[in-house]
Amino acid sequence: MNLPEEAIAKSCCADLYQSDLARMILGDTLHPGGMALTNRLGRMMGIQPGDWVADLACGRGTSAMAVSRAFHCKVVGIEFGSGAAAEARASALEAPIRSETFFVRGDAEQPPLRSSVIDAVLCECSMSIFPDKPSAVKQVKGVLRPGGRFGLSDVTVEPGSLPQGLNNVVGQVLCLADALSVAGYENLLTHGGMKLQHQEDASDEIINLLDDLAGKLGMILAWQKVSQPTLAADQDWLRDAPDLITEVRQLVTDGKLGYWLFVAEKPA
Ligand SMILES: C[S@@+](CC[C@H](N)C(=O)[O-])C[C@H]1O[C@@H](n2cnc3c(N)ncnc32)[C@H](O)[C@@H]1O
Predict the structure, then answer these.
(1) Integer Cα distance of 249 and 268 in angstroms
(2) Distance, CA 230 to ligand 1 centroid (Å)?
(3) Would 213 be classed as within a structural domain?
(4) The model's pTM
(5) For residues 202 and 91, what is the distance between their CA atoms, to the nearest angstrom?
(6) DSSP for 203-229?
C-alpha cells in the first residue's frame, strides 16, 4: 500500500469503528472478551500503580479507563478516529469514577510520545489492522523504557484459512482481513527486538462474540424485513452475514482462527 492509500484505509477503518452500526453490533468494547480479557492482559503485563501506559488504537477509550482504574496507572490513549477520540475524552470527564486517562487523536503507528518513557504499551485487536506491522512494533519498542512491556491481543488467522466471503464489512469488524497467524505475531515481536514472555490462547472469546453477533444480526435482519423489505445495495452483506458467522465459528473450532494474548518485554 502506498502512503495515500494507507491514510484512506485508516480513515475508513476509523469511520467504521466509530459508526453507530459498529456500536450497535459490538458495544463500547471493540474486542473479544471485553474488560475481563483486558484486565487479564494487564495482569500478564504486570502493570504497576503509577505506571505510564499507552493504549494504541484505543477506540472510545473503554479499555484505557478500565485499566487506569484497575491498576491505578496513567493511560494515554491514541486513536485515529477523531469522533472516537473526542468521545473517549468526554467519557473520561463524565465518568462517575475518575480515571487518569488522556486521549489524543493520532496515528498509533507513529505514536506522538517521547522515546523510552512509557512503562507498558497495550494494543488490543488493532495490530491486525495496521498496514505496516513491523514498523508499528519498532515504534512500540521506541517509546517503551528498557524493561517495559508490550501487551498485544489480537485475532489470529492461520495461512490460507480465510474464506473469500469475508472480504467485506463483517471481515473488517472482526479484524480478520489482515490478521497474522500465532507464529506470525511471535515472529513480528521477536524480529522487532522484543523478548516474548507469555502467550495465551483466548479463542473461546471469539465464540462468545460470534454468538452475541449472531443474535444482534438476527434482530437487525428481522427489523429490516419489517421496516424496509428490500435491502439497500450497501446493506447486501447483511443477508450473507449469518452464514459467514457460522463459517467463522467452524474455523475457530478447527483451530484455524483464534484470539491470542502476547506479552513481550523491551530488553534492558
Ligand atoms: C477493533 S477496534 C479496537 C479498539 C480498542 N483497542 C478496543 O479493543 O476496544 C480498532 C481501532 O483501531 C483504530 N485504528 C486503526 N488504525 C489506527 C491507527 N493507525 N492509529 C490509531 N488508531 C487506529 C480504529 O479507529 C478503531 O478504533
Answers:
(1) 41
(2) 32
(3) no
(4) 0.87
(5) 28
(6) THHHHHHHHHHHHHHHHHHHHHHHH-S
Only one residue has cell 493511560, namely 75
Best probe residue, ligand 1, of 25, 79, 205 (max atoms within 8 Å of C-beta): 79
* pLDDT, tens only, 77-106: 999 999 999 999 999 999 888 889 999 999
Q: Note whether residue 220 is domain-resident.
A: no
Query: Which CATH number goes with the domain that contains 9?
Result: 3.40.50.150
pLDDT tens for each residue of 36-58: 999 999 999 999 999 999 999 99
Residue recorded with cell 473488517: 172
Domain count across the chain? 1
Residue 136, class by beta-carbon neighbours within 10 Å (0-12 exposed, 13-18 middle, 19+ buried)? buried
Pocket of ligand 1 (CB under 6 A): 10, 13-14, 17, 29-31, 57-59, 62-63, 78-81, 84, 107-109, 124-126, 129-130, 175
- Output the residue whose Cα is nearest ligand 1's atom 24: 14
